[in-house]
Amino acid sequence: MLLQNAFIGSLVADAVSMPVHWYYDTVAMDSDYGCITGYVKPRNPHPDSILWRSSFNLPSSRINILHHHAEFWGRRNVHYHQFLEAGENTLNLKLAIELYHHVISEGSYNVDTWLSRYIDLMQSPGWNNDTYIEEYHREFFMNLARGRKPRDCGVNDHHIGGLSHVPALMAALEVLGIDDKATLKEHVMSHVSLTHRNRHTASCAVSLVNILCAVKTGCQVQESILEFADKHFCTGNLREWSSLPDRSVVGSRLTPACYLPHSLTASLYLAWQYSSDFSGGILANANVGGDNCHRGVVVGSILGAANGVSSEWLQGLHSMKQLERDDVSSPYRIKEIK
Q: Which of 5, 85, 201, 229 is disulfide-compatible with 304, CB 3.0–4.6 A?
């Protein structure tokens, strides 16, 4: 069940990165948190926060996705995840957990039933305690409020957050006995396009599916990355970068920001560099800053599939309680975590 480990790895990497998410000033990040070595609670102020210049007003009062967090939009220095506890997951990964449960309970992946679930969750007060709602969610619900059908609410978005659900969906399908790469790819593409209608997002999602499937069948991480993502960098670059500090690569040679396809290159570099070290890879990803939560989905899923996830990371991960809840049948339980 290696794709289960990929999913867990994505959750761990997101939770580790959460307090330093979207820190682009690494001097400020080091001053505020030091070196990240485990799960940490976020705190205000967040010097790189852009909530002060963000606003969101839906054209219909019948739809609300900000809830009590709306008062923090437009304020300076507000941490995006200010109310989360150490070891909690951000919004996109909370949705990934719900997607995982939903697909297994339905016995298949169905676009319309998932969209209905997604819309209900986002409008449920108290379900999500994240202050920040990523742009693609806001645009989706803006279109919904304008009267578009749910299948037509996705937008042209090429942020790496569009890959957040890929490991979860693949893991759920694995539980159901669906592990054919062509079928996995078809479902992933259908799901990603519901919110992210962009060629870069689609291409990067396919690359991640290919790499995870290769690792699942026994291929080495570095070999899999070079085979299925060679268009993102050359072997010569990898050899040169491997001797440099992580922040000299992600932050100087490669962007720490969120835009695909360049953010995938940064993610795959970290997975390549730490191919046999899950903990080292997710901590390096957190400590280079930028969009490390969503980049962590890629890094954590690949390294989790290849190396497993140790119990020390599971103990502090809040979402393990959700994944092991007793009110559902046994297929929900994560199995064979190394």
A: 5
